Amino acid sequence: MKNIEENGKLKVTLYHGTNSIFMDSILEKGLGYCNPISDLNVKATAAAVFELAKEHISESILYQKNFVSFNKMIKQEVTKSFNYQHGQTYLSPSMETASNYAVSNLYGSEFVSYTLKFIEELIKHDISIVKDLANDNPDLFNLLRLRSSPILIGLDDLPISWLKDERGNSPEHNIKYLQEIQGNSYESLCKQTNFRLTSVVPSDQISIYLINHLAKRNFAYYKLHLLRSVVE
After folding, report:
1. What pLDDT score does 232 carry?
2. For labelling alongside 38, which of 89, 109, 155, 220 has CA 20 to 30 A away?
3. Phi and psi for 210 in degrees, rounded to 5?
4. What is the distance between the alpha carbons of residues 63 and 211, in angstroms, rounded to a whole number?
5. Whole-model pTM?
6. CB contact set of 126 (below 8 Å; sequence gap of 6+)
7. Mean pLDDT of 28-44
8. Strand partners, 209
9. How confident is the model at residue 59 (pLDDT cuts 50, 70, 90)?
Protein backbone atom coordinates (compact mmCIF):
# COMPACT_ATOMS: atom_id res chain seq x y z
CA MET A 1 0.00 0.00 0.00
CA LYS A 2 1.49 3.34 -1.06
CA ASN A 3 1.83 6.22 1.35
CA ILE A 4 -0.39 9.05 0.09
CA GLU A 5 1.59 11.72 1.98
CA GLU A 6 5.12 12.59 0.90
CA ASN A 7 7.16 15.71 1.68
CA GLY A 8 4.04 17.57 2.76
CA LYS A 9 2.16 16.79 -0.45
CA LEU A 10 -0.87 14.65 -1.16
CA LYS A 11 0.07 11.86 -3.57
CA VAL A 12 -3.43 11.21 -4.91
CA THR A 13 -5.12 13.16 -7.68
CA LEU A 14 -7.87 15.54 -6.66
CA TYR A 15 -10.53 16.70 -9.12
CA HIS A 16 -12.69 19.77 -9.54
CA GLY A 17 -15.78 19.78 -11.77
CA THR A 18 -16.76 23.07 -13.36
CA ASN A 19 -17.67 24.59 -16.72
CA SER A 20 -15.82 25.98 -19.72
CA ILE A 21 -17.25 29.46 -19.03
CA PHE A 22 -14.62 29.74 -16.28
CA MET A 23 -11.74 28.14 -18.21
CA ASP A 24 -10.13 31.36 -19.47
CA SER A 25 -10.08 32.75 -15.95
CA ILE A 26 -8.58 29.53 -14.58
CA LEU A 27 -5.88 29.46 -17.27
CA GLU A 28 -5.04 33.12 -16.71
CA LYS A 29 -5.13 33.32 -12.91
CA GLY A 30 -5.17 29.74 -11.62
CA LEU A 31 -7.78 27.62 -9.88
CA GLY A 32 -9.21 29.26 -6.78
CA TYR A 33 -8.34 32.85 -7.69
CA CYS A 34 -11.79 33.89 -8.85
CA ASN A 35 -14.94 33.42 -6.81
CA PRO A 36 -17.99 33.48 -9.11
CA ILE A 37 -20.37 33.76 -6.16
CA SER A 38 -18.96 37.12 -5.08
CA ASP A 39 -17.77 38.24 -8.53
CA LEU A 40 -21.29 37.80 -9.94
CA ASN A 41 -23.10 38.99 -6.78
CA VAL A 42 -24.99 35.72 -6.72
CA LYS A 43 -26.18 35.77 -3.10
CA ALA A 44 -28.08 39.06 -3.34
CA THR A 45 -29.50 38.25 -6.76
CA ALA A 46 -30.52 34.75 -5.68
CA ALA A 47 -32.35 36.12 -2.63
CA ALA A 48 -34.32 38.52 -4.85
CA VAL A 49 -35.03 35.76 -7.37
CA PHE A 50 -36.26 33.45 -4.63
CA GLU A 51 -38.75 36.04 -3.37
CA LEU A 52 -40.05 36.57 -6.91
CA ALA A 53 -40.33 32.82 -7.43
CA LYS A 54 -42.19 32.36 -4.14
CA GLU A 55 -44.67 35.04 -5.18
CA HIS A 56 -45.18 34.16 -8.84
CA ILE A 57 -44.19 30.54 -9.63
CA SER A 58 -44.62 28.61 -6.39
CA GLU A 59 -46.91 26.12 -8.16
CA SER A 60 -44.34 25.27 -10.84
CA ILE A 61 -42.61 21.90 -10.88
CA LEU A 62 -39.17 23.53 -10.77
CA TYR A 63 -40.07 25.52 -7.65
CA GLN A 64 -41.64 22.55 -5.87
CA LYS A 65 -38.64 20.31 -6.56
CA ASN A 66 -35.90 22.82 -5.77
CA PHE A 67 -37.05 25.59 -3.45
CA VAL A 68 -35.83 23.92 -0.24
CA SER A 69 -32.28 23.40 -1.52
CA PHE A 70 -32.20 26.82 -3.18
CA ASN A 71 -33.24 28.53 0.04
CA LYS A 72 -30.56 26.68 2.00
CA MET A 73 -27.94 27.83 -0.52
CA ILE A 74 -29.08 31.42 -0.13
CA LYS A 75 -28.75 31.08 3.65
CA GLN A 76 -25.43 29.21 3.23
CA GLU A 77 -26.57 26.54 5.67
CA VAL A 78 -24.50 23.62 6.88
CA THR A 79 -26.60 20.68 8.05
CA LYS A 80 -25.55 17.40 9.59
CA SER A 81 -25.61 15.72 6.17
CA PHE A 82 -25.11 18.49 3.62
CA ASN A 83 -22.95 21.55 3.09
CA TYR A 84 -24.82 24.36 1.32
CA GLN A 85 -21.98 26.85 1.63
CA HIS A 86 -20.73 28.18 -1.70
CA GLY A 87 -17.94 30.49 -2.73
CA GLN A 88 -15.13 28.05 -1.97
CA THR A 89 -13.32 25.75 -4.41
CA TYR A 90 -14.08 22.13 -3.54
CA LEU A 91 -12.07 19.10 -4.63
CA SER A 92 -12.84 15.40 -4.71
CA PRO A 93 -10.54 12.37 -4.95
CA SER A 94 -13.30 10.78 -7.05
CA MET A 95 -13.20 11.50 -10.77
CA GLU A 96 -16.81 10.33 -10.95
CA THR A 97 -18.04 12.69 -8.22
CA ALA A 98 -16.35 15.73 -9.74
CA SER A 99 -17.47 14.82 -13.27
CA ASN A 100 -21.08 14.34 -12.17
CA TYR A 101 -20.98 17.73 -10.46
CA ALA A 102 -19.79 19.40 -13.66
CA VAL A 103 -22.40 17.65 -15.80
CA SER A 104 -25.24 18.33 -13.35
CA ASN A 105 -24.53 22.05 -13.03
CA LEU A 106 -24.91 23.77 -16.38
CA TYR A 107 -23.06 26.89 -15.23
CA GLY A 108 -20.23 25.24 -13.30
CA SER A 109 -21.30 26.37 -9.85
CA GLU A 110 -24.32 24.75 -8.21
CA PHE A 111 -25.46 28.04 -6.69
CA VAL A 112 -25.07 29.92 -9.99
CA SER A 113 -26.89 27.12 -11.83
CA TYR A 114 -29.83 27.09 -9.40
CA THR A 115 -30.13 30.87 -9.58
CA LEU A 116 -30.18 30.89 -13.38
CA LYS A 117 -32.66 28.00 -13.53
CA PHE A 118 -35.07 30.00 -11.39
CA ILE A 119 -34.47 33.10 -13.51
CA GLU A 120 -35.25 31.13 -16.67
CA GLU A 121 -38.46 29.87 -15.07
CA LEU A 122 -39.51 33.43 -14.19
CA ILE A 123 -38.79 34.55 -17.75
CA LYS A 124 -40.80 31.62 -19.11
CA HIS A 125 -43.77 32.79 -17.04
CA ASP A 126 -43.40 36.38 -18.31
CA ILE A 127 -42.59 37.86 -14.92
CA SER A 128 -41.42 41.19 -16.29
CA ILE A 129 -39.90 42.48 -13.03
CA VAL A 130 -37.03 40.03 -13.50
CA LYS A 131 -35.71 42.47 -16.11
CA ASP A 132 -34.85 44.86 -13.28
CA LEU A 133 -32.55 42.21 -11.84
CA ALA A 134 -30.94 41.81 -15.25
CA ASN A 135 -30.18 45.52 -15.31
CA ASP A 136 -28.66 45.30 -11.83
CA ASN A 137 -26.54 42.23 -12.58
CA PRO A 138 -25.86 41.96 -16.33
CA ASP A 139 -22.77 39.75 -15.94
CA LEU A 140 -24.79 36.98 -14.30
CA PHE A 141 -27.66 37.21 -16.79
CA ASN A 142 -25.22 37.18 -19.71
CA LEU A 143 -24.30 33.61 -18.80
CA LEU A 144 -27.71 32.57 -20.12
CA ARG A 145 -26.52 33.44 -23.63
CA LEU A 146 -23.29 31.46 -23.53
CA ARG A 147 -22.71 28.04 -25.03
CA SER A 148 -20.51 26.01 -22.75
CA SER A 149 -19.42 22.51 -21.77
CA PRO A 150 -18.63 20.70 -18.52
CA ILE A 151 -14.93 20.34 -17.75
CA LEU A 152 -12.91 18.35 -15.25
CA ILE A 153 -9.75 19.66 -13.62
CA GLY A 154 -7.11 17.28 -12.29
CA LEU A 155 -4.61 18.29 -9.60
CA ASP A 156 -1.60 16.26 -8.52
CA ASP A 157 0.89 16.70 -5.68
CA LEU A 158 -1.04 19.42 -3.90
CA PRO A 159 0.58 20.71 -0.72
CA ILE A 160 -1.49 19.51 2.22
CA SER A 161 -1.19 23.01 3.68
CA TRP A 162 -3.42 24.18 0.80
CA LEU A 163 -6.28 21.91 1.89
CA LYS A 164 -9.04 21.84 4.49
CA ASP A 165 -11.89 19.39 4.80
CA GLU A 166 -15.22 20.32 3.19
CA ARG A 167 -16.33 22.33 6.22
CA GLY A 168 -13.07 24.21 6.64
CA ASN A 169 -11.45 22.05 9.30
CA SER A 170 -8.17 20.12 9.28
CA PRO A 171 -7.95 17.69 6.35
CA GLU A 172 -6.12 15.05 8.37
CA HIS A 173 -9.14 12.79 8.94
CA ASN A 174 -9.85 12.85 5.18
CA ILE A 175 -6.25 11.97 4.40
CA LYS A 176 -6.27 9.17 6.98
CA TYR A 177 -9.44 7.75 5.44
CA LEU A 178 -8.01 7.87 1.91
CA GLN A 179 -4.93 6.08 3.18
CA GLU A 180 -7.06 3.34 4.71
CA ILE A 181 -9.08 2.66 1.55
CA GLN A 182 -6.18 2.36 -0.88
CA GLY A 183 -6.87 -0.62 -3.13
CA ASN A 184 -9.38 -2.00 -5.60
CA SER A 185 -12.45 -0.28 -4.06
CA TYR A 186 -10.82 3.16 -3.72
CA GLU A 187 -12.94 4.93 -6.38
CA SER A 188 -16.25 3.74 -4.97
CA LEU A 189 -15.31 4.42 -1.35
CA CYS A 190 -13.88 7.92 -1.81
CA LYS A 191 -16.91 9.49 -3.51
CA GLN A 192 -18.17 11.35 -0.44
CA THR A 193 -14.78 12.65 0.72
CA ASN A 194 -14.28 16.30 -0.25
CA PHE A 195 -11.63 18.93 0.36
CA ARG A 196 -11.70 22.71 0.38
CA LEU A 197 -8.90 24.46 -1.51
CA THR A 198 -7.39 27.37 0.43
CA SER A 199 -4.71 28.57 -2.02
CA VAL A 200 -4.57 29.34 -5.72
CA VAL A 201 -3.22 26.51 -7.89
CA PRO A 202 -1.19 27.99 -10.77
CA SER A 203 -2.47 27.10 -14.21
CA ASP A 204 0.72 25.25 -15.16
CA GLN A 205 -0.08 22.68 -12.44
CA ILE A 206 -3.55 21.96 -13.82
CA SER A 207 -4.81 19.31 -16.23
CA ILE A 208 -8.14 20.06 -17.95
CA TYR A 209 -10.51 17.58 -19.58
CA LEU A 210 -13.63 18.21 -21.63
CA ILE A 211 -16.47 15.94 -20.50
CA ASN A 212 -18.54 14.53 -23.33
CA HIS A 213 -21.54 13.07 -21.54
CA LEU A 214 -23.53 12.08 -24.62
CA ALA A 215 -26.74 13.51 -23.13
CA LYS A 216 -26.54 10.94 -20.31
CA ARG A 217 -25.78 11.74 -16.67
CA ASN A 218 -24.08 8.44 -16.06
CA PHE A 219 -20.33 8.37 -15.52
CA ALA A 220 -20.05 5.02 -17.29
CA TYR A 221 -20.97 6.79 -20.53
CA TYR A 222 -18.74 9.84 -20.14
CA LYS A 223 -15.79 10.36 -22.45
CA LEU A 224 -12.97 12.60 -21.22
CA HIS A 225 -10.89 14.50 -23.75
CA LEU A 226 -7.63 16.02 -22.52
CA LEU A 227 -7.55 19.72 -23.39
CA ARG A 228 -4.47 20.67 -21.44
CA SER A 229 -1.90 18.78 -19.41
CA VAL A 230 0.41 19.93 -16.63
CA VAL A 231 3.31 22.03 -17.91
CA GLU A 232 6.54 20.26 -16.98
Report:
1. 59
2. 155
3. -85, 135
4. 29
5. 0.91
6. none
7. 94
8. 152, 226
9. very high
